[in-house]
Amino acid sequence: MKKIPFNRPFVTGQEYVYLQKAIANGHLSGNGEFTKKCQQWLESNIGCYKSLLTHSCTGALEMAAILADIHPGDEVIMPSYTFVSTANAFVLRGGVPVFVDIRPDTLNIDESKIEEAITSKTKAIVPVHYAGVGVQMDLINEIAHKYNLLVIEDAAQGVMSSYKSKALGSLGHLAAISFHETKNVISGEGGALLINHPEFAERAEIIWEKGTNRSQFFRGQVDKYTWVDVGSSYLPSEINAAFLWAQLEAAEEIKERRLAVWQQYHQAFADLEAQNKVRRPIIPADCEHNAHMYYLLLPDLESRTILIDKLKEYDINSVFHYVPLHSSPAGKKYGKISGDLIYTNELSNRLVRLPLWVQISEYEIEHIITQVHRLLK
């Protein structure tokens, strides 16, 4: 059979129609019709005060770091088990990532470890919703309120997920989401900054438009636009926004199909978990997830490596995930550790992700399940 890739981007078909319309509109540079449609969808469906499309989730995190007024030496608490952009956005402003351990169940930041990591230099907490499963945001928000800290959600994987019936991305002061082609809803490259507190909205828009008050000028609020703050070119083009609009229209359908595949995996590996050969993902009762990924935890690094290598022989591309940031060269240079990162170190060595995309066939799913069972038994 043909090689089964880890991911295959899904296209609804409507993207081509909207791309043609964007071209016909003659406005390709961003903040046009499709940008506004996407932002309105996010505000309506996530429940944020304001959303701004960006060229990437990385860009959205960088905007959040500027809005958080990060200065050299300011500390930002986050998990080490995350993508480099989570930390890099703050390091670019001179901030210091402070890495704390993850929970053994969800692999999200361990909320019980956060308070002990707070110092007089702490400015923000950045919870990462791993695999689209919500962090325990109630306690984190309580801690942030107690110490007057900002909460910036890294909800890169969290579109269409919720915690206690509230959409991920709507629970902190600010949030960043991703539309990279590996995510559920995509635009190739893309993201959005979500603003949940109105006091950030005006400055966010200025930062978004290269530090100018251009949007205020077009609304007639100022008689000319000029450079008023720091900023950069964070807008995506209308081509990206047009593609994304087709995806957002199908977001519920995409989620349901991914959940069906996720559940098929989950049921199929229950017996292996009962035999202590793997551990399946754990979804807390107060979380509704979006099936962003399906992973298994193997007993150790050696068994994980063998499984990945053997699956490759059967044309199945399974992969591990992050190398923890605290163990990376840049993490050692720019960050610091709070407490022991026992679960971060252990679980990152044991995790393997299985192929999951919208149009994966029943035959491909069964082939993957069969080979995993055969190899582990």
Describe this structure in words.
- With 377 residues, this protein is of the alpha/beta class.
- It has two domains: 14-249, 3-Layer(aba) Sandwich (Aspartate Aminotransferase, domain 2); 251-376, Aspartate Aminotransferase, domain 1.
- Helices cover 38% and strands 13% of the residues.
- It contains 14 helices and 13 strands.
- It has helices spanning 14-25, 33-46, 57-67, 84-91, 137-147, 201-208, 214-218, 238-249, 251-268, 270-274, 301-313, 329-334, 342-348, 362-376; strands at residues 50-54, 75-79, 96-100, 122-125, 150-154, 162-163, 166-167, 174-178, 191-195, 287-288, 294-297, 336-337, 351-354.
- Strands 1-9-8-5-4-2-3-12 form an eight-stranded mixed beta sheet, sandwiched between helices.
- A hairpin with a 2-residue loop joins strand 6 (162-163) and strand 7.
- The model has no long low-confidence stretch (mean pLDDT 97).
Question: What is the fold's blueprint, element by element?
Answer:
Blueprint (H helix, E strand, L loop, with lengths): L13 H12 L7 H14 L3 E5 L2 H11 L7 E5 L4 H8 L4 E5 L21 E4 L11 H11 L2 E5 L7 E2 L2 E2 L6 E5 L12 E5 L5 H8 L5 H5 L19 H12 L1 H18 L1 H5 L12 E2 L5 E4 L3 H13 L15 H6 L1 E2 L4 H7 L2 E4 L7 H15 L1
Parallel strand pairs: 2-3, 2-4, 3-12, 4-5, 5-8
Antiparallel strand pairs: 1-9, 6-7, 6-10, 8-9, 11-13
Helix pairs in contact: 1-8, 2-8, 3-4, 3-6
Write down the overall mean pLDDT: 97
Oligomer: single chain
Radius of gyration: 21 Å
| DSSP, total strands | 13
CATH superfamily of the largest domain: Type I PLP-dependent aspartate aminotransferase-like (Major domain)
Rough outline: globular
Ranges where pLDDT stays below 50 over 5 or more residues in a row are none
Major β-sheet profile: 8 strands, mixed
Count every helix, treating DSSP H or I runs of 4 or more residues as helices.
14
CATH fold assignment of the largest domain: Aspartate Aminotransferase, domain 2
CATH class of the largest domain: Alpha Beta
Strands across the major sheet, in which order?
1-9-8-5-4-2-3-12
The tally of domains stands at: 2
Instruction: Quote the beta fraction.
Output: 5-15%
